[in-house]
Amino acid sequence: MPPAWSLHSQLDKDTINVGDLPLCRVVVIKDANYPWLLLVPRRPEVVEIIDLDEVEQAQLMTEVSRVARVLKDITKCDKLNIAALGNVVPQLHVHVIARRAGDVAWPRPVWGAAPPLPHDPQEVSDFIAALRRKIWLG
């Protein structure tokens, strides 16, 4: 029997669940410095995009594009950063980050630029509700 999928413990600790698309779990990074989402394919032992079959790769890009469009619409950001790095957490996950000129890291990458800023509970709740509505999660 193949192993069951679960969210990597570090990602689970660092994120808030938004919901599941056909392939990916969508989560918000616990850092209010940036509107920052991750898409994590719900497939066990997947480390690289090439570990997905071609149909799943196409589905991943469809879901990344859908989420990125919604994030841009909600945040009115200046730029989207989309990346799959996985140097610290090996489980495949794609970052979709809304950037604004003048944010704490601009124009540099967000990693390590500033300590994580806790979310205001009501603001993050409203943000997640808007995401769920616009990306068809209910």
Which helices and strands appear, and what pairs or packs with what?
Elements: H1 9-14, E1 15-20, E2 24-29, E3 36-41, H2 54-75, E4 79-83, E5 94-99, H3 121-134
Antiparallel strand pairs: 1-2, 2-3, 3-5, 4-5
Helix pairs in contact: 2-3
Low-confidence stretches: none
Share of helix among residues?
25-40%
CA-based gyration radius: 15 Å
**CATH class category label:** Alpha Beta
- State mean pLDDT (0 to 100 scale): 96
Oligomer type: single chain
CATH architecture: 2-Layer Sandwich
Let me know the largest β-sheet.
5 strands, antiparallel
How many individual β-strands?
5
Query: CATH superfamily membership, which one?
Result: HIT-like
Decide which structural class fits the backbone.
alpha+beta
CATH topology: HIT family, subunit A
How many domain units?
A: 1
What does this structure look like?
The protein is an alpha+beta fold. It has a single domain (9-134), classed as HIT family, subunit A, CATH 3.30.428. The chain is 30% helix and 21% strand. The chain is built from 3 helices and 5 strands. The chain has helices at 9-14, 54-75, 121-134, and strands spanning 15-20, 24-29, 36-41, 79-83, 94-99. It has a 5-stranded antiparallel sheet with strand order 1-2-3-5-4. A hairpin with a 6-residue loop joins strand 2 and strand 3. Helix 2 (54-75) packs across helix 3. The longest helix has 22 residues, at 54-75. The chain is globular and about 45 Å long. The model has no long low-confidence stretch (mean pLDDT 96).
